[in-house]
Amino acid sequence: MFFDSHAHLDDRRFDNDRAEILADLKNYGVGLVMNIGCDLKSSLQSVALAHEYPFVFAAVGSHPDDAAQVDATRLALYRQLCTDERVKAIGEIGLDYHYEEPSREVQLPAFRKQLELAQDLNLPVIVHEREAHADGMELIRQFFAVTGVFHCYSGSLEQAKELVKRGWYIGFTGVVTFKNARKALEVAQWLPLDRILIETDCPYMAPEPHRGRRNDSRLVPLVAAKLAELRGLTAEEMGEITTENAKRLFRIP
Ligand code: NI
Fold it and tell me: Using one digit for the tens of pLDDT, what is the confidence trace for 196-207?
């Protein structure tokens, strides 16, 4: 069985066929999905999907793109949503310095406040961190009681080693199937098997041979297959291992 630990199936690109995709997942061996919020609307939609489908769980939070909206009112709404038993994590939260829009000065307090919320509620977090390695790790060190997953991992092996030592998991998308995936593969080769998560990040990051097209959770076995090949396992074995890992992290019985 495969667990897509990071999906955006609420995205409007699925408006015409969301129900068909969700009904089709079992035919691909995909038995569990974590649907991730990026802002208030997608957080609410994630919770709604998790109520509609017993195999979908929800994370709520603001992506760095939405950082300017993270004020006391918004945090109170997220706190309220986290009382729902289908909500298993805060995310995706983090830092993205690729475009720096919004600025670091806006992103940093939003990330910090959502880490505080996770700490308060004793929930794991789903972190989006791109080109912000130093500031990201600095906050992770400050919030040493909080763990979670660095999703769509793009950091160094050295950073991965520190994350693992601090109890974190690392998530891999279809990027591992791309030609230029050397760095992610180096990390995936080293990573203790009990810290690996697989994800689609759909509708983005479609694995080869679907690169550039809309992605969906049915393709997560392709991510597992690539990682399995790297570690001398079968895709099914990698699926079982990463499913156990995600269930442990998100405390899904
Ligand atoms: Ni995402």
Answer: 999 999 999 999
Query: 7 C-alpha to center of ligand 1: Å?
Result: 7
**Measured between alpha carbons, how far is 173 from 207 in angstroms, rounded to an integer?**
7
Task: For residues 94 and 127, give the distance between their C-alpha atoms in angstroms, rounded to a whole number.
Answer: 5
CA of 26 to the centre of ligand 1 (A): 22
- For the chain, what is the radius of gyration of the CA atoms? 17
What's the pTM value of the predicted model, to 2 decimals? Answer: 0.97
| Distance of CA 206 from the midpoint of ligand 1 (Å) | 12
Domain architecture of the chain: domains with CATH: 2-250 (3.20.20.140)
Residue 233 sits at φ, ψ, to 5 deg, of -120, 175
Q: Find the helix or strand (DSSP H, E) in which 197 lies.
A: strand 196-198
CA angle 190, 195, 197 (to 5 degrees): 105
Q: For 208-231, how does the pLDDT look when each residue is reduced to its tens digit (9 = 90+)?
A: 999 999 999 999 999 999 999 999
Strands (DSSP E) along the chain, which ranges? 2-7, 30-36, 56-60, 87-96, 125-130, 148-150, 169-172, 196-198
Q: How far is the CA of 243 from the centre of ligand 1 (A)?
A: 18
